[in-house]
Amino acid sequence: MNIDLHDALGTLAESGARRTAPTEQLLARVHRRRTARAVTTGAVSMGTVAAVALGAVALDGRGPATGVATAGATTTEPTTEPSFEPSTSEPPPGTEPTVTGDGLNCGSWAPDTLVAEVGGVGLDVQLPATWREGDPFVLSGQVDATDATELANQGIIVSLMSGGTVKASGGTTVNLATEGGRLTVGTPFLAELVLEPCGGERLPAGEYTAIASMLYDVGDGRSGLLQVGAPIVVTEWTSEPADEAAAQAAVAAIIAAAHTGSGGAPGTCGSTLVPGALEDSAVRVGLSMTPRPERPRPQHFYGHSTVDNVGPQLVESLTSEALIVLTRDGIVVATGEAPGRPAGSDPIQIEPGSSWGLTTAEWFEVCGLPGGAAPEVRLPAGDYQAWAVLSASVTDLDGPAAGTTRDVTVVSAPVDVTYD
Amino acid sequence: MGEGRRPADETLVDLARERWHALTGYAYLLTGERAAAEDLVQEAFVRTFARGRSVQATAVEGYVRRAILTTYIDGFRRRGRWRARLHLVAGPESVDGPEESQAEAAEVRDALAALPRRERACVVLRFYDELSIAEIAAALGIAEGTVKRYLSMAMDRLEHALGPMGPGSTVEPVLVKEER
Fold it and tell me: Which of A109, A137, A371, B170 would bridge A101 by S-S if both were Cys, CB 3.0 to 4.6 A apart?
């Protein structure tokens, strides 16, 4: 292939262009933004902003619902286009309902109606009947499309509702199998996500309604939400003695195997990490482990790593090359996870003197040794050390070695953590 | 036109009707997703017109294009909170057209998607908008040398992914800019 880039970009732009402008939707958005600007410019409190937003919802005829729709979502056409306009400010967790009735965010009211099929696109989700607090929330489903072409984002949000408001929510992307990028009838998906309780409190055990929401875009400018709901029982996170013993044994097995094996690449399960052993003059990796004692054990700490380019070279990596791991006795026994992590492989390019937030860990799982499956146990209690690990390439930009690239693996200083 | 609209609203409607196709195509080169491209253009419109002041009709497309670019460089994520919730960027989407050009467009799209954000913007500005190095530097607020470096690295990556580039795909030659 001998590509003329100008022509190729022109063709590509043409293929991605939209022909019809949603002018009324645009005007509505502009007017809402003007209203928000007028309110905030007038130095009125955020509470007033929320009141304005709520007023707009009421004008749309989407006032707070008193109940919650459950399984068997309606399939009627919506009387108004589902609202998906982001608010100008995120409501503080745990506040009273302020913004919308879409059932997506903390503080949101329940939707008036759950619309699971619009314009030839339908959402069918199998929500679990029970969910144990702190476990990843796993759901499967299927998207049906007749003559529709695409779903924006291919992402899904799950919220748990009680008393007419959202009590916990979380989201992730889903990978839909498509034919040539187009949805077809019966496109299945499997999603795993973290549900975050609103207000920073433990989510009380009990009966809730789970709502799965997916953004749709039927290709002619119309977009909105497809939603399916079902009752769900939330149980409290506990660790039975037998489970705990099995988890401790699994971790001990990883350590024992590492002592007898040759060890893997730094950061892989069973590899050895030593403070100060993997440093580089161009790259520094930092790690913070924020305690969240109100969460169940696997989520007790929120990990966040950063990378600083402290040299004159260019640092490049992929998000998939950034890890946060836990060690015991210097051996990697658990890995940090976040929703959708496997799909994240974006290139990272860090200029000299720049810093990047690299990766996060919402929870930690006992890892599987190379060539083996991860043991089906939950992270056992005890003391660990957390590390951030980054593999990157470092390229000289100036001087006689300009253009020369070397591969490095850099590890942060360890952070001591205790899981009760 | 609806009643009670401000002059800025009239300009918005005219621009949207006449240039939506071109603007979403431009945004698509940056985002690689149709829906994200349209959302990016919408956000650019909102940023341009939200002040409610009269906007000179002859210059307004330039403002919107600039807003598309800066919003993209700033790390725009579709639907704000939706993206924040999802934590991730969605995958590539389909392209229409004859099979051969569709296949090439898909390869170009995938190669663009693998570029870091600023490199990608430089490629689009250079080879689609046909801006000079100095104009790209001004548009992105970076040094001309940095633009050259971004373009050089981007071209290396694109050639690695797509094979040799044809005439007119080099970084240095000054291209004649067409009147739009």
Answer: A109
Domain ranges in chain B are 1-87, 94-174
Q: What is the C-alpha separation between A322 and A315, in angstroms, rounded?
A: 13
The hierarchical CATH code for the domain A241-419 is: 2.60.40.2360
**For chain B, what percentages of helix, strand and coil (3-state, to nearest 5) are there?**
65, 0, 35
> Chain B contacts of A223, Cβ < 8 Å?
35
CATH code of A65-84+101-237, in short, is 2.60.40.10
User: How many Å lie between the alpha carbon of B165 and the closest alpha carbon of chain A?
Assistant: 5
**Nearest CA to B25 among B68, B76, B75?**
B68
Closest residue to A181, CB basis, from B78, B83, B94 = B94
What are A310's strand-pairing partners? none
The SS3 of residue B48 is: helix
Contacts of residue A189, Cβ cutoff 8 Å, sequence gap at least 6: A140, A141, A142, A143, A154, A156, A174, A175, A176, A177
Q: Which of A2, A4, A7, A18 to mutate to test the interface with B (most CBs of B within 10 A)?
A: A18
Chain A residues lying within 8 Å of B21, measured CB to CB: 17-19
Three-state DSSP class for A127?
Answer: coil
What ranges do the domains of chain A cover? 20-59, 65-84+101-237, 241-419
3-state SS assignment for residue A224: strand
Q: Which CATH class is domain B1-87?
A: mainly alpha
Residue A121 has pLDDT above 90, yes or no: no
Whole-prediction pTM = 0.51
Contact between chains at A150 and B169 (C-beta distance less than 8 A)? no
Per-residue CA distances from A227 to A57, A71, A166, A175 (Å): 19, 10, 14, 18
Q: How far is it, in rounded angstroms, from Cα B162 to Cα A1?
A: 7
**Segment A191-249, tens digit of pLDDT:** 778 888 887 778 889 999 999 988 765 555 556 678 899 999 999 877 778 889 999 99
pLDDT digits over B57-100, tens only?
677 888 888 888 887 876 553 333 344 433 322 222 333 333 44
B168 CB near a chain A CB, below 8 Å? Answer: yes
A241-419 matches A65-84+101-237 in CATH topology: yes
